[in-house]
Amino acid sequence: MAAALAPDDRSRIYALHVARPVERGALGANDPRSDVSRRETLAPLLARAVELGRDVHPLTVTSSDAAETICEVARLKGANLIVMGWHRPVFRQSVLGGALERVMRGTDADVAVFIDKGLRSAPRRLLLPYMGTSHDRAALRLAVRLGRRTKSDLTILHVVSPERSKPVLEIEAGRLIETQTSEPLDDGATARLVVVESEDPLDTLLQRADDYDLVIVGIGDEWNLGPGVLGVRQERIAADTSASLLIVRGASGEAASVANGAFASRDR
Question: Sorting pLDDT into bands at 50, 70 and 90, what band is 59?
Answer without folding.
Answer: very high
